[in-house]
Design goal:
By secondary structure, this protein is mainly beta. About 10% of the residues lie in helices and about 30% in strands. This is Peptidase A1 domain-containing protein.
Length: about 350
Amino acid sequence: MFSHSNKLPEGAKKKPVMSVASNPGNFVMGKRCVALVHVHLQPREHLYRPNNNLLQCEDLLCTAFHSPASHPCQYADRGSSLGVLVKDYFPLKFTNGSLLSPHLAFGCGYDQKYFGPVTPATAGVIGLGNGKVSILSQLSRLGLTRNVVGHCLSGQGGGFVFFGDDLVPSLGVVWTSMPPNSMGKRYSCGPAELVFDGKATSVKGLNMIFDSGSSYTYFNSQAYQAIVTLVRNDLKGKPLKDATEDQSLPICWKGRKPFKFVRDAKNYFKPLALSFTNAKNVQPQLSPETYLIVTKHGNVCLGILNGTEVGLGNLNIIGDITLRDKMLIYDNENRQIGWAPVNCNMLPKSRTVAIIAR
C-alpha cells in the first residue's frame, strides 16, 4: 500500500485537491478495491464517523461492487483493509475557485493490516482505478471531470494528483495504448522488451501494470533473474560489495563509505528501459534513481523485486519507486497511458479548470 502523502483541500468542473495516499492500482490484487477512499484506523487528524449513511444494497454502486455495504480489500503488497461502504457529500475545491460537494460512495476502513516496516501516517487511500465505483468514474458520470486521472509523485515526498485532462501537458507526453482486454480493471500496457544500457535483452513479451500502490517494482521470476544478472555483471570491477547483512531488501551493496543518497551511488549503475513493441519510439527510461534505494545502514539496494516469489505469478508491476518524478496520465476515454518528465514539486498551471489533490 503506497503511502505517498497528498493533501486534498476540504472543500474541489473542472478537475478535483485531506491527507491521503494515492493508489491508481490498488485493484491489482482484487478489483473490489479500485474505487474507494479507505479511511485508516489511525488517521493524521480525525476519524471519519459514518452517520446512518451506509450504502444501501439497492444502490447501483453497491451492485457494481458485488458486496452489500462492505469492502474487504487485499493489496499487491499483501496489506489489507476491511470496512463498510458509505455515501456522503465530498467537498471538493476546483482550480477555478468553485466549491462543490457531490454525493459520492467510498469505503470507511476499520481494520487495516500492513506488512511494510512503516505504518503509513495517512488518513486514507484514494483508489484511482477505472471501475464503476471509483471516485474518478463517479465524478465523470456526474459531468464534473473527464474520465482522466494523473499523478506526479516527487522523490522528495509529496506531489499532486489530478482528475480530468486540463493539467495534461500539450507537449512532451509519450503515449502508449491500453490493451482492449486490459487486465481486468488494472492500468496496463504491453507487450514490452527489457532494454539494459541501451541494448536489447532476451527478455520480451512483458505486460506491465502501473501501480503506485506498490512501493517497489516487481518483475516475474524470469525477467527478475535476467535483471539481477545484468546488473551484477555490470558491477564487476566496481568498488561495491554485496551487503548480505543488510536485510532491508533481498539484494544490497555497500561502498567504500556509507551512501547518504541514491545520487551518491547512481553512477555505478546503468539505466534500464522498456521498449513497447506495438508502439514506435515508446521507450520509458528507468534511470538508477527509479530502481535503487539507500537504506538506514548506508547501503544501496535493488528496488526491483521478484514478483513470482511474493505470489504475483507472471505479473509485472511498475511501482512507486519507478513512478517518481514523472507525470503519469491514465486516459480512460482514449484508452491510453502517458508519461512526461516534469517537476512534481510544482503544481502546473491549468489551461482551464481542474480538481487537484496535493
